[in-house]
Structure prediction request, 349 residues.
Amino acid sequence: MADTASDEGTGRELSAWQIMGPLIDSVTPMAVRVAATLRLADLIGSGTASVADLAESSGADPDALGRLLRHLVCHGVFDEPEPARYTVNGTAALLYSDHPSGMRFSLDLDEFGGRMDFALTGMLHTVRTGKPAWEKVFGAPFWADLAANPAVAASFDATMGAESEQVHDAAIGYAWPARAHVVDVGGGKGALLAEVLQANPEVRATLFDLPETTARAREFLAERGLDGRCTFAGGSFFDQLPTGGDIYVLRHVVHDWGDEEAGTILRRCAEAAGDHGRVIVIESHGTSGDDPGMFAEMDLRMLLISGGRERTVEDYRALASAAGLRVDDVHATRRGQVVLDCVTADITH
Ligand SMILES: C[S@@+](CC[C@H](N)C(=O)[O-])C[C@H]1O[C@@H](n2cnc3c(N)ncnc32)[C@H](O)[C@@H]1O
Prediction:
């Protein structure tokens, strides 16, 4: 039998349940999500709030909320400086609605994130079959499910654009030529293009996405006064893309898909970019060496959701090459997103 593990501080023997605890705990991840959904950090603000007041303002049961907070405090989320009164500590501050990570919204169980978490209950099905859990759990493949549920699709678009610090990082992570025409393929609600257009007054843009998403993007850019330099095209990137762009961007799009579909999307970009355009692929987890844990987690998550996958730079090179592209440059952004700058194969720009 293996040596018995002991707690470093007390020297006491640890039970098997204590050793496995952090790996098998399914209570804490859900407790944090409930706190995010009830906006507890926003409600406490920079002061102290009693559990009774928090229950009242969040519409929760006081006894149940107190028990939730007690659990969270034990895990370092929120402080309890005096009995049944709570403050926001450094960890809980990540749950403020205006935090640039967009974490509160992403964890909100009433939004897309909640649906995504629920999909994880189908992991056994995925591992047994190799098929996404989404269809098993929700009765339709991921993109069909979104198409059939406009509120979920709108929440998905909002979630994709919520991580403003990562969007900003991508926008400053590429040297957009001053007068380029940038086509954002699968551009979502337009968060990246808004940043690019704002910072580059002579850049023009086209946002290409599914028609409903394109309509939301038009509103988003109009609210920021940027729609004058942007055209909007609704359609499928498995069909023809608008031609005439200088740069075709795919941010967080390729990892949604298996190799066959990803190859088709890249080929459509290569065809539209033609001899003089470039295709820029931006992904969060481009190198398994940077953070193997995050890479592996996101890789599994993409398989469960839509049958996608995370890829190494070498995987992207192979995919690009099969689609008629050559990776001309690879670099990381300040926050570690990977940017692959591709040109049509055999052409040097
Ligand atoms: C993960 S989101 C990324 C959005 C955005 N590029 C970003 O960085 O936040 C993938 C995008 O692909 C779009 N999409 C999915 N299937 C598509 C299709 N067949 N044709 C065009 N866009 C599609 C979705 O609507 C969504 O906006």
